Amino acid sequence: MQEKLDKKIKEFQNALDRFDEVLKPKNAIERDALVKRFEFTFDAGWKVLKNFLEVEYSQLEIQSPIQSFKSAFLVSIFTEKDVENWTTMRNIRNQTAHEYKELTAEEVSGSAKKFSEYFHNISTIIVK
Length: 128
Known about the structure:
- This protein is mainly α.
- The chain has one domain (2-126): Up-down Bundle (Four Helix Bundle (Hemerythrin (Met), subunit A)).
- 80% of the residues lie in helices and 0% in strands.
- The protein contains 5 helices and no strands.
- Helix 1 (2-21) runs antiparallel to helix 2, helix 1 packs across helix 5 (102-126) and helix 4 (80-98) crosses helix 5.
C-alpha cells in the first residue's frame, strides 16, 4: 500500500506543478489548458487523499471523492469548510469534464489561485 501511496503522491505533485504553471492565463488557449490541468489535479488530489487515508487508517474503505472528503473530516484532517471546498471543486470538475461552457471555464480561471491553495493544503498534509 505504501508503494501505491508514494506513486500517487508523485503523480499529484506533478499535476500540481503543472496546474501552478498556468494560474494566470493570458488568453483563451491558456485558460482552457488551466481548466484541463484543474481536472487532472483534482483527480490526482482526491485519489492521493484516498490512498493516504487507507494507509494511515486501514479500517477506512473509500470508493468516491465525497467519501474521501468525509473520511478526512472524520479523522480530523479536513474541517467542514475543507469538505465544502473540495465538494465544490468536484462539482466544477464534473461540469468541465462533461461539457465545455465558457462561463464554467471563466469560473475555474477566476478561482484558480484559491483552488491551488486547497491542493497545496492536501500536499502539506500528505507529504511529510
